[in-house]
Design goal:
10 strands; PPM-type-like_dom_sf
Length: 232
């Protein structure tokens, strides 16, 4: 597969000061003719948010590696949720105490890419056009948050199928600690990937970590996580 993957997550200044763990989690893997990127953001108000996000990453990988790539999106989302619940049950944690967003991109060697999003954050992609995975609009009159641990309906998920066929095609997944601060998302995606393409894997990861640590915007106190997938 002629793709490159780079991702990073950093603990926000507030969690450093409070001695709390990073409540974001990332996971990426390439195997056989497939690749996967997962970015999750544990809900900060929950006592086991950090475990929820890490187990969500684990649940996505455990699910997709044993599935046909053509599995219906609704069925896949349900299987991920059930796997996540099973992991929590093993360690006697209630789902609502480990609630987390869940964003992932699953691709194959032919260029097909399946994008899933539950909760805050963003998935931006550049193929022949620029786009973003659409999720359900926030309900200002409800306290319900879209996340594993709260959402049980497929309607809460955003889904998009795209195709990598050209060298300029790329995708980024990020938590809201970054996405909420972006002004020109298309320019950000283009600029970041162009920079990463000029670096080897170790250099690219180090560069991303530096950028996240020095994120000079109003939400800088948040944990921050981002993952990129692009043609080499």
């Amino acid at each position: 597969m002629n793709i490159a993957i780079c991702a990073a997550t950093v603990k926000g200044p507030k969690h450093h000061r409070d001695g709390q763990p990073n409540q974001d989690a990332i996971f990426y893997r390439v195997w056989q003719q497939y690749w996967l990127m997962v970015v999750c953001d544990g809900m900060g108000s929950k006592p086991y948010a950090h475990l929820g996000s890490h187990l969500a990453c684990k649940a996505v990988y455990a699910t997709v590696k044993n599935c046909d790539f053509a599995i219906p999106e609704r069925e896949l989302a349900k299987m991920v949720y059930l796997k996540w619940l099973a992991y929590l049950k093993e360690i006697h944690i209630q789902p609502k105490d480990a609630a987390t967003t869940c964003l992932f991109a699953w691709g194959d060697s032919l260029g097909a890419v399946r994008l899933f999003q539950l909760g805050d954050g963003a998935i931006y992609y550049q193929t022949e056009t620029f786009g973003q995975v659409k999720v359900k609009a926030d309900d200002l009159f409800s306290n319900q948050t879209d996340a594993l641990g709260f959402s049980k309906s497929w309607q809460d998920w955003g889904y998009q199928m795209i195709y990598f066929t050209q060298a300029h095609h790329r995708v980024a997944l990020m938590t809201d600690g970054m996405s909420d601060d972006l002004v020109d998302e298309q320019e950000f995606l283009a600029t970041m990937v162009d920079i990463l393409k000029g670096k080897n894997f170790r250099q690219a990861k180090k560069y991303l970590q530096h950028e996240l640590h020095h994120w000079q915007t109003p939400k800088h106190s948040d944990d921050k996580s981002i993952g990129f997938i692009y043609w080499k």
